[in-house]
């Protein structure tokens, strides 16, 4: 019934099984490693451990595969809204370091733009023909299309759009006015929609492009004091999911990042608003450096990830809140499914141990 | 070491006794026994979760968008469950009156039930005043159902920023405003229920619903944070995720649907508003946070459960056990939908 080689392998694994020598059941008899193995295999764990190790190696292989670059920022034109500070600025730096040919930063304040541009230009590698561009515009304005067209004239079309322009706000629901709500939705959602709509037709024509949205951990889970902010960041995630579904056929991929508290001017400004409850809540996580978040984002773009998380807490939350997000790497899917079913998996492992005895009898 | 009756040889299976011997000898019998015990335990917890923690009977239920669709069906269901006052809020006075008459026919004579109408716009700045006027003389609102909402479908490129804004205004802010107006009284009474209507499009991506989906994801996020903030006041929040429901709103949307959206919609079925309303009212009474509809809804609810609060042990056990498998099932659906988009987009390209 079974091929000879399988029979041999199983016999080898089970040769210390109960049908040969009586297993050493008494803990006092454990003198050496061989006895430990005997004990392991006689109670069924040997087979289980062997299978587990094989699966782990398989997952590791798939994980290494997922680290391959599917898309290089080198040579591309990257446009970053909100690019004069915070995460946007850090992404601009990272894009330059990764060889982007043109980095365009968009923001409202011209002085900050110029200051950031100087900072970025110092990172330019002399031998690469890199350029830093600034566009002074408001992502919420109706004139955005014109301003982008003027600002981008003479430049190669935008390959990668990073929607990093956003605002934050924290207060209890009762202290949040409908206007506060509206502002969060306007800037965080519509402020990401507008640039995307302007730059999309060119990407579709080229049948190539990358669009990145910045959500937040508050866009994956509830956090006291962030009714308005959270609503807007959940919306960004939903938008990203639908957009990826609509645009994949054009070879345009979407990614969405879920940063934790990140050390940026925006966070500094928010700290003063925080109530004691929010502070206590924030104590559970740590503040990330913008450079670290930016590195994850650029890596995520290059590896073709949809969900980009940061740190271990971010990974945890990413799996829990994965929902119906598209998954583009087998390793990610396996990680999610096995983490999500870890409890049933443990139960199944015990069943496998039981199965060991039955297999013993078959071979016996 | 082992009792004699557990030893067995496969060739000796002659009768049932041998089968049992075999089952137990390889351990399956024990496993099956444990499994059955766990199942019974889960069943017990599930029956516990069906208990009413909160009765709509005797309560004042206010339903925005209550003159049609899901809102109207919830109004009917609330009356049938003995709500003392049902207030429906909408913009159109004629529809309100017509619905009021329809609802009043459902009033049980012996119960002292009343149906109230308030003509107002959930998006207007005057909502607070209009609510105060409309509710004067009535007992404070116990249950708020934010059923006022709109839908819109088009590809992202065919969706203008104004379309986006409208979805966010009505579906999100139009739920925020009534909640803010009625919350202070609920907090004072340390009692209340607030319900939001999201959508399956608020749990998963569906082609053609960038704006609608964004607004419905936002509603879900809002509901989660609100539940966290308000539980201490004994005010519970629920959020419902209806599929396509047979309402005037759906009828109006059908004409907008592109071939891709139609192909996608074919995977689900259209639910009756009464069925959705019944799930919502049951969910409120049983203290559920996530209210889903039908089997697909249950599936999606588990997959997209994320960090939602869970209030019944049976629900948590179901989620933990099923999540891994359901995520795989979800991926199959995602692949199917992406393929539909690719197929139909290529078809459309050829035609042009």
From TrEMBL, chain A:
GO cellular component terms, semicolon-separated: endoplasmic reticulum membrane
Regions that span the bilayer: 39-65, 306-324, 330-353
Pathway note: Lipid metabolism; sphingolipid metabolism; Sphingolipid metabolism
Keywords (A to Z) from UniProt: Endoplasmic reticulum, Lipid metabolism, Membrane, NADP, Oxidoreductase, Sphingolipid metabolism, Transmembrane, Transmembrane helix
Compartment list: Endoplasmic reticulum
Example of a GO MF term: 3-dehydrosphinganine reductase activity
Highest taxon above the source species: Eukaryota
Xref: Pfam families: adh_short
InterPro entries: KDSR-like, NAD(P)-bd_dom_sf, SDR_fam
EC number: 1.1.1.102
Biological processes per GO annotation: 3-keto-sphinganine metabolic process; sphingolipid biosynthetic process
Record family assignment: Belongs to the short-chain dehydrogenases/reductases (SDR) family.
Protein's recorded name: 3-dehydrosphinganine reductase
Protein species of origin: Geodia barretti (Barrett's horny sponge)
Automatic annotation (TrEMBL), chain B:
Top enzyme category: oxidoreductase
Pathway(s) per entry: Lipid metabolism; sphingolipid metabolism; Sphingolipid metabolism
InterPro entries hit by this protein: KDSR-like (IPR045022), NAD(P)-bd_dom_sf (IPR036291), SDR_fam (IPR002347)
Similarity comment text for this entry: Belongs to the short-chain dehydrogenases/reductases (SDR) family.
Transmembrane region(s): 20-48, 289-307, 313-341
GO biological process, alphabetically ordered: 3-keto-sphinganine metabolic process; sphingolipid biosynthetic process
GO cellular component, one term: endoplasmic reticulum membrane
CDD domains xref list: KDSR-like_SDR_c
Keyword terms of this UniProt record: Endoplasmic reticulum, Lipid metabolism, Membrane, NADP, Oxidoreductase, Sphingolipid metabolism, Transmembrane, Transmembrane helix
SUPFAM superfamilies: NAD(P)-binding Rossmann-fold domains (SSF51735)
Domain of life per record: Eukaryota
EC number: 1.1.1.102
Protein name: 3-dehydrosphinganine reductase
A molecular-function term among this protein's GO annotations: 3-dehydrosphinganine reductase activity
Pfam families in UniProt: adh_short (PF00106)
Entry's localization field: Endoplasmic reticulum
